[in-house]
């Protein structure tokens, strides 16, 4: 007995909406990165669900590439957060945006 693909799509849509809400409303850079990770995981759920539904491994391979992209994004993002904290004594993303020249 397998779970229908519609349930995976609904789960993925819910996770993507939660991540999108977090990206649009949070000012904390760590919460911003976590929201982007939730959105990438929603995309991975879609890729793997449709890969299983169609019976090929293409979606699973793309999900692995997406996980590698997410790992690189976290490494770069944490570096940016450290520079943000060092230069502005906080990780509020609205402060550097207001100090443009």
Spatial separation of the terminal alpha carbons? 60 Å
Calculate Rg over CA atoms. 17 Å
SS-derived structural category: mainly alpha
Global morphology? elongated
DSSP, total strands: 0
The biggest beta sheet is recorded as: none
CATH topology: Helix Hairpins
Mean residue pLDDT: 89
In total, the number of domains comes to: 1
DSSP strand content: under 5%
Which CATH top level class fits?
Mainly Alpha
State the order of secondary-structure elements, H for helix, E for strand.
Answer: HHHH
CATH architecture: Orthogonal Bundle
Helix coverage percent of residues? over 70%
Low-confidence stretches: none
How many helices? The count is: 4
Structural features, described:
There is one protein chain. The protein is mainly α. The protein has one domain: Helix Hairpins, CATH 1.10.287. It contains 4 helices and no strands. Helix 1 packs antiparallel against helix 2 and helix 2 packs antiparallel against helix 3. The radius of gyration is 17 Å and the shape is elongated. The mean pLDDT is about 90. GO terms for molecular function: NADH dehydrogenase (quinone) (non-electrogenic) activity. It is a multi-pass membrane protein. Belongs to the complex I subunit 4L family. Its EC number is 1.6.5.9. It comes from Saliphagus infecundisoli.
């Amino acid at each position: 007995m397998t779970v229908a693909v519609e349930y995976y799509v609904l789960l993925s849509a819910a996770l993507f909406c939660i991540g999108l809400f977090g990206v649009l409303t949070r000012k904390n850079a760590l919460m911003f990165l976590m929201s982007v990770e939730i959105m990438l995981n929603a995309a991975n759920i879609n890729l793997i669900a449709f890969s299983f539904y169609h019976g090929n491994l293409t979606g699973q391979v793309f999900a692995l590439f997406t996980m590698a992209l997410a790992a690189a994004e976290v490494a770069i993002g944490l570096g940016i957060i450290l520079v943000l904290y060092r230069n502005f004594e906080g990780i509020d993303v609205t402060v550097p945006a207001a100090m443009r020249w």
